[in-house]
Amino acid sequence: MNTHVINWAFFLLGLSVMSLGISIVTVAGLGTTPISALPLVSSYISGLTFGQTTLIINLAMILGQLILLRKNVKWLVLLLQLPMTYFFSVLIDFSMSWVQTIELATYWHKIAFSMLGNAVLALGVSLEIYSKAAVLPGEGLVVAMALFSGKPFPKVKVFNDVMLVVLAILLSYFFFKELHGIREGTIISAVCVGIFVKGWLSIFRLITGKKTDEQ
Description:
The chain is mostly helical. It has helices at about 5-25, 35-45, 50-70, 75-100, 105-130, 135-150, 155-175, 185-210.
């Protein structure tokens, strides 16, 4: 089978798994992932679905890449993000509708469910990295910020995640006078997902014998 077809199959599978992981973490009720904090709070404010606000904010991230990169924009890479973002947003709403039927009786059940979501999300991210087919706007914006600022990708990634959470916190307090969608689970995700990604990529290397790009 054509290598490009295989890579795109891994990428689309990765998006599906990522959407499921985000939904599991969110439904656990202990706060969503850092990258999803702003879309989730925006959905509470606007009444739109989680997937719809994810789409809107990711479109803003595509615009941000265009502004930062200007003449250095790779148009194919940027334009590919449009259908991928729509697909990802639809998957999030689908996953949320399915996962929301699960009842969690105790706090420790919620912790365990949140950790499961982090592991699933990390698997999806690992499949995306492994595919090398495309990137979502969130990662694309970080790449653009790193190129624009001359700073290393990991540092810009941390800065971007922190700023998204801070903005979500500010919006939450402004509209609700309290936190919504951001709790201890958000911190757990910030710490654990990267660790799980490294673990999944190590497993991929053992199975395939191929090197993977860890970001």
